[in-house]
Amino acid sequence: MRDSERLPGRPEGALPGQDGHHGGGLGAGAPWPAAGDGGRPGAAPGPAAGRPAAGGDPATPGAAPGAFLVDSFRALQAVRPAPDRLHSATHEEIRSGATTDVYFVKTYEVLRHLGALDTPVTADIFANRPGILCGVEEALQLLQGLPVAVWAVDEGRPVEAGQVVMRIQGPYGAFGLYETALLGMLASATGWATAARRIKDVAGDAPVICFGARHVHPAVAPVMERAALVGGMDGASCILGARLAGRDPAGTLPHAVMLIAGDTLVVAQAADRVFPPEERRVVLVDTFQDEAVEAVRVAAALGRRLAAVRLDTPSERGGVTPGLVREVKARLAQAGFGHVQVIVSGGITPDRIPPLREAGADAFGVGSYVSAAPPVDMTMDIKEVAGRPVAKRGRIPGAAPDPRLRRRL
């Protein structure tokens, strides 16, 4: 380990929590946090109705007094979710360790018994296949305030199989319980960002908007669409996903509004009246009649205010083909509306983009290709224990210097 990679002001092998200072962390010994309690240092513990108290266990190193952490068998028994709740984890439940694999609770019990839970370690997280790294910022939020030092590769960078993407130094008891959550944050987001980069590479300068939120659980939809933006896509329709990335959400109009109003032109004219001036007028034209005829009809009514039409023809009608795009573009141009762009959505994959681009498609809405992308599996290995290089069989002991890692915490 290079001197520049060690915690400043600490002797060889000394890590956070080894100089008499314990900050961050969580501990058992408090009731299950009520809604709004952070479950972290500084959060006031509050019992929830019907939750058994989890107390009497020694505090986890670095834990704030009274903070709740699922780090013992006794605390484990307190995790009794109500049957009338949503099934996704709250931020408090993630921070408390309730989403971890139970074998880390068993690990804490054993190490606590051995007096070794506060052992200083260096842990490396590495990718199991190439991809575009994402999830780092969320992982850092989970580790924020704990007595650890963290180095990481920047989000949006390509990573190789076996490359270390994050390094954590600190007492094991301060962060070990979060291994499951950290790996999941990095693996899922990196998988989505990798798929987004492939789509964008094929699309070139044609804008690509992520329409994938409807294909995943709403709890992770913002994570997925933010990852798509990190991967290089040009917009995201999920409101929270776009805002997390510092963007405005992007999208058009669905078939639902067309069917309820009963006429594409009626919808287009209403949208033109109620949308703010800066909102591009983009109208879906495949609901009721021939797409080319509908496109020209809408363009004639809105004129220069119509920025684009969207084609989302269902598979039951053959989907959006290069021939359809070519015809819509030609008929718009012949009618004097060559400024109107054509946006294509519906089952778009990298293989479908080149012929659609050649036919004249100007932009794409992509959903399931990104949302269904497999995760880039991540692994966490302990590489140093109290400054001594270690590794499981088959791997190299020690935390090797890597200039791609940047100090973040």
Automatic annotation (TrEMBL):
UniProt GO BP: NAD+ biosynthetic process
Region (Disordered): 1-63
Protein name: Nicotinic acid phosphoribosyltransferase
Compositional bias ranges of the Low complexity kind: 42-63
PANTHER family, per database record: NICOTINATE PHOSPHORIBOSYLTRANSFERASE (PTHR43202:SF1), NICOTINATE-NUCLEOTIDE PYROPHOSPHORYLASE (PTHR43202)
Keywords for this protein: Glycosyltransferase, Transferase
Pfam family, one: QRPTase_C
A Gene Ontology molecular function term of the record: nicotinate-nucleotide diphosphorylase (carboxylating) activity
Catalytic activity: nicotinate beta-D-ribonucleotide + CO2 + diphosphate = quinolinate + 5-phospho-alpha-D-ribose 1-diphosphate + 2 H(+)
Domain Quinolinate phosphoribosyl transferase N-terminal: start-end pairs: 101-189
Record-linked Gene3D superfamilies: Aldolase class I, Quinolinate phosphoribosyl transferase, N-terminal domain
